[in-house]
């Protein structure tokens, strides 16, 4: 409907009447940032404030600046009539009035007071009509703007272009509010469902508007959100009655079934690539179908050797294996056979670049994310039992003292005889079977190598390390399998020594042939190895040794002495399927074996190693965080009051010490009453919260243990 302008006087010249607050007046005031209420003035409260009775019958004291409007003509207003007044006002509050009035007033560019507006649209300036005019104008965000306020208010019509833009924004906000309301309804419905009936995660990602909101909550939960995601997540949490915190967002996402209870937030926090692009997968599949061996004519047939592949029982990628024999002159010859993934790859190819930008395979208690597509990494590239496998074999003849007498590197074909776990290999060693003499020769080689390295100043860093495998991580109570590895285990020491021997031989090969390689070094510590000889062998001494280590070094032109390992040079070479820097060494060595120039200069290697190492750091952080989470979850499930054997590793301050829970492999901090580094103690777990990374233990006094 159209509204005719009432009266003929110039509205903008109207005098603004200043009203004072007094007893019996009806007024509107700001209760808080979101609510305005009607109230009747009762009496003064001090020099400036007033006691009022609001529309809900509540008595409160208000400041003058809280007053937003004094309703005219309401002297001695009875507060019991406020409800009736509001009910009558509802009949007059038609929002379309604003648009009609704006159209007429904007044509004449006239400003109006509240009462004049009431006169124009309602034909009356009485208290009810004036209040309705104030209500509409003060809450209007489209048609009018308040330009002056001196006890009363003047409203000016906005320009047409501004109104159009504000209308567009208003409609957009209304649409967004409706979307939010619908999304909150979805969340509440999902939250109410039993655990096994929650909607699947992908159902939240099918519709773009829903996807945006759920991803905003996800970004908020992992604390990596942009401003828009933070705003949206905050609105959702508020509408759901949750606090605006990342932990509240996480709890909500778990409650609706979007995240499993034990979700690994680091995968989102560090933006870990857990899948491959179609292009990369396509290239990998092509290689699986057709990959001729360019080195076939120069591969040495070593398939007659007895080959031992020893690794953890859940190893997915098998990079290396070992052989040994005793020569007629009594010396030992060992072979370290390494998988040959470069026969599938070209430097700078799509798969190579993908591997560089991953840097390493990621090993978590819940999953493995290989550096190469899974079928390629775990099948074609890996060594397989009883199958002819392409490999690069590093052979070394040892002097009786354990130093290298001769070495060679060649392309080969091997047929792995045994796939053994560390536990299985240790058992075979203890059985001392005649038919496994090659394994005993390997153990002897490892023993004399360890002695030789010690004579060269090597430092013992062997620890007790936990390993966890979680079979069904998406379940609320998944199965946790804990293995505690003692790195002094005979089979682990055997493998470790052979890997170090291989690294030394490859460094020597690179040095002798002037090949740029990623040479690793470690300067000798300023503290003598003997400084910690008083500590018992094992974790306590290892922790002390590690505490004084200097920073590692790398060179890409020549070997650097590795003081920690006690060898003149070292190149990581034995894990080319799972470590990109090992793969770089393979490219360089294999090119030399073919009589070609190395594909990469020392500068190239340095740049690519830097890129890969950044991703390796993230992978290590992911692994350590996830391992600790599941160790804490394991401890949370143990019977309350269970006693744990602990080893005192070091003192931090006074009697505050770091302990190692020997049967779990986790380090804890607590106060100990007595004892020295290397001593054993007993502790109980007082409190453990995996999600908040909280673990609190208390020592049990020796005389109360029984």
Folded structure, characterized:
- This protein is of the alpha+beta class and 706 residues long.
- The chain has three domains: 175-259, no CATH class; 278-626, no CATH class; 638-699, OB fold (Dihydrolipoamide Acetyltransferase, E2P) (Beta Barrel).
- It contains 18 helices and 26 strands.
- The strands form eight sheets. A five-stranded antiparallel sheet has the order 4-3-2-1-5, with no helix packed on it.
- Helix 5 crosses helix 7.
- It starts with 25 loop residues before the first strand and ends in a 6-residue tail after the last strand.
- Mean pLDDT is 92; it is low at 1-18.
Distance N terminus to C terminus? 92 Å
Number of helices: 18
Largest sheet properties: 5 strands, antiparallel
| Percent strand | 15-25%
Question: What would you report as the Rg, rounded to the nearest angstrom?
Answer: 38 Å
Specify the overall morphology.
elongated
Quickly give the structural class.
alpha+beta
Read across the widest sheet, the strand sequence of neighbours is: 4-3-2-1-5
Q: Can you count the beta strands?
A: 26
- The average pLDDT value, as a whole number, equals 92
Q: Give the helix level as a range of percent.
A: 25-40%
Q: Low-confidence spans: pLDDT under 50, at least 5 residues?
A: 1-18
Count of discrete structural domains: 3
């Amino acid at each position: 409907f159209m509204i005719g302008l009432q009266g003929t006087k110039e509205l903008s010249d109207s005098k603004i009447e200043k009203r004072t607050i007094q007893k019996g007046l009806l007024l509107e005031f700001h209760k808080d940032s979101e609510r305005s209420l009607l109230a009747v003035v009762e009496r003064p409260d001090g020099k400036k404030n007033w006691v009022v009775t609001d529309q809900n019958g509540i008595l409160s004291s208000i400041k003058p600046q809280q007053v937003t409007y004094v309703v005219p003509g309401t002297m001695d207003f009875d507060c019991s009539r406020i409800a009736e007044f509001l009910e009558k006002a509802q009949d007059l509050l038609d929002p379309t009035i604003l648009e009609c009035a704006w159209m007429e007033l904007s044509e004449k560019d006239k400003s109006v007071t509240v009462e004049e507006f009431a006169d124009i649209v309602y034909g009356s300036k009485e208290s009810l009509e004036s209040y309705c005019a104030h209500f509409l104008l003060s809450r209007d965000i489209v048609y009018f703007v308040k330009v002056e306020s001196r006890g009363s208010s003047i409203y000016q019509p906005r320009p047409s272009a501004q109104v159009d833009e504000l209308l567009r924004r208003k409609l957009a906000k209304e649409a967004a509010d409706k979307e939010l309301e619908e999304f909150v309804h979805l969340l509440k419905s999902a939250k109410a469902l039993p655990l096994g009936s929650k909607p699947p995660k992908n159902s939240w990602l099918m519709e773009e508007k829903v996807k945006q909101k759920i991803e905003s909550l996800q970004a908020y939960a992992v604390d990596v959100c942009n401003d828009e995601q933070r705003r949206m997540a905050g609105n959702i949490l508020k509408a759901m009655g949750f606090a605006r915190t990342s932990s509240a967002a996480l709890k909500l996402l778990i409650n609706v079934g979007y995240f499993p209870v034990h979700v690994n937030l680091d995968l989102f926090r560090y933006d870990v690539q857990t899948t491959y692009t179609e292009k990369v997968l396509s290239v990998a599949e092509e290689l699986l179908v057709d990959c001729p061996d360019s080195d076939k004519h120069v591969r040495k047939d070593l398939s007659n050797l007895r080959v031992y592949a020893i690794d953890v029982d859940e190893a997915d990628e098998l990079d290396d294996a070992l052989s040994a024999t005793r020569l007629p002159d009594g010396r030992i010859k060992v072979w370290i056979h390494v998988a040959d993934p470069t026969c599938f790859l070209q430097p700078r190819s799509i798969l190579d670049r993908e591997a560089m930008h991953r840097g390493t395979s990621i090993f978590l208690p819940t999953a493995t994310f290989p550096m190469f597509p899974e079928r390629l990494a775990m099948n074609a590239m890996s060594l397989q039992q009883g199958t002819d496998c392409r490999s690069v074999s590093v052979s070394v003849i040892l002097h009786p003292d354990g130093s290298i007498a001769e070495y060679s590197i060649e392309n080969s074909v091997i047929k792995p005889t045994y796939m053994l776990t560390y536990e299985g290999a240790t058992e075979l060693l203890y059985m001392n079977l005649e038919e496994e003499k090659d394994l005993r020769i390997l153990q002897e080689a490892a023993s004399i190598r360890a002695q030789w390295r010690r004579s060269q100043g090597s430092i013992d860093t062997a620890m007790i390390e936990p390993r966890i495998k979680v079979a069904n991580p998406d379940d609320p109570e998944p199965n946790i399998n804990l293995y505690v590895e003692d790195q002094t285990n005979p089979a682990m020491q055997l493998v470790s020594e052979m890997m170090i021997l291989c690294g030394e031989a490859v460094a020597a090969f690179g040095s002798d042939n002037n090949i740029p390689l990623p040479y690793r070094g470690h300067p000798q510590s300023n503290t003598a190895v003997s400084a910690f000889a008083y500590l018992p062998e094992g974790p306590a001494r290892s922790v002390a040794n590690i505490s004084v280590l200097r920073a590692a070094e790398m060179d890409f032109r020549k070997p650097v002495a590795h003081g920690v390992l006690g060898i003149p040079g070292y190149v990581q070479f034995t894990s080319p399927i799972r470590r990109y820097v090992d793969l770089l060494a393979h490219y360089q060595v294999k090119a030399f074996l073919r009589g070609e120039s190395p594909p990469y200069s020392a500068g190239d290697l340095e740049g690519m190693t830097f890129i890969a190492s950044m991703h390796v750091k993230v992978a290590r952080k992911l692994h350590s965080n996830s391992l600790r989470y599941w160790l804490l979850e394991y401890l949370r499930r143990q019977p309350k009051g269970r006693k744990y054997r602990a080893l005192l590793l070091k003192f931090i301050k006074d009697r505050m010490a770091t302990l190692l829970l020997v049967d779990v492999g986790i380090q804890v901090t607590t106060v100990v009453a007595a004892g020295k580094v290397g001593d054993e103690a007993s502790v109980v777990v007082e409190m453990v919260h995996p999600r908040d990374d909280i673990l609190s233990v208390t020592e049990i006094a020796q005389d109360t243990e029984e």
